[in-house]
Amino acid sequence: MAFTNKLQLLIPKQHGAWGMLTIPFFLGAYAGGFTWFHIPLFIGWLALYLATYALLTAIKLKRKKEYLSWFYRYISVAVMMLLIPIYSHMKLIYFGIAMIPFFIVNMYYARKKKERVLVNDVAAITNFCIGGIASFYIGSGQFNMNALELFLFCFLFFIGSTFYVKTMIREKNNPVYKWLSWSYHLLLIIGLICAGYPMFVLAYLPSLIRAFYLYGKSLSIKKIGVSEIVNAVYFLAAMMFLFHG
Questions:
Q1: Owning domain of residue 165
Q2: Number of domains in the chain
Q3: Residue 19 domain-assigned (yes or no)
Q4: If 109 and its partner were Cys, which of 10, 54, 120, 193 is the partner (CB 3.0–4.6 Å)?
């Protein structure tokens, strides 16, 4: 559990969320072209994530005052940093507006204390991937098919990761999730080939292999987390290569 005092920040420890926060953003910056605006945009994006984490925790737990104080601190930094790129790229506001409905879903499940349900995960993943589009837009100045492809590729990857982690931890004894995970990963590969993206299969092959090979094996949460970090880094590197090509 995250904790705070005068010297320590409120920092979430969900490894998967950090990957979702950074990979779409960095991939968007790479595909759209890096500019100095990405620096305040990323700081603001990071602060916004920390602010929403604090707010959702405040909604879920009784120690609202403690977590709300962190929310106000983080959201202040987020606003100050995000205003810099927004001043020159006003259409960035539209990406923020697009995130609101999905964050409302997160707030709803936080209040119900059911953050682990699949719908909540999908809503969070969607917002992280919208952040990737914003990163792409600020570099390219365009919202085009490449931006939509970037969103979709990241979204599909993290949905697969969500299915896999559930089959290894909370739903490891649930055969429904096993077949959902296996079917999803297989259909993803087939779908990419049929849609005319055969080379992009390379970015998802490790996910397919680990979904089948590691299922049912007794792995600690730490090992699962580390393996997902490695897989996410591979995905980022593969996608950068494929986008460059």
A1: 15-37+89-244
A2: 1
A3: yes
A4: 120
pLDDT tens track, the chain, 245 positions: 444 444 477 888 777 889 999 999 999 999 999 999 999 999 999 999 999 999 999 998 877 788 899 999 999 999 999 999 999 999 999 999 999 999 999 999 999 988 889 999 999 999 999 999 999 999 999 999 999 999 999 999 999 999 999 999 888 888 999 999 999 999 999 999 999 999 999 999 999 999 999 998 888 888 888 889 999 999 999 999 998 75
Longest distance between any two alpha carbons in the chain, whole Å: 55
Q: Is residue 190 part of a domain?
A: yes
Has residue 67 been placed in a domain? no
In a domain, 154, yes or no: yes
Size of the chain in residues: 245
Q: 3-class secondary structure for 46-91?
A: HHHHHHHHHHHHHHHCCCHHHHHHHHHHHHHHHHHHHHHHHHHCCC
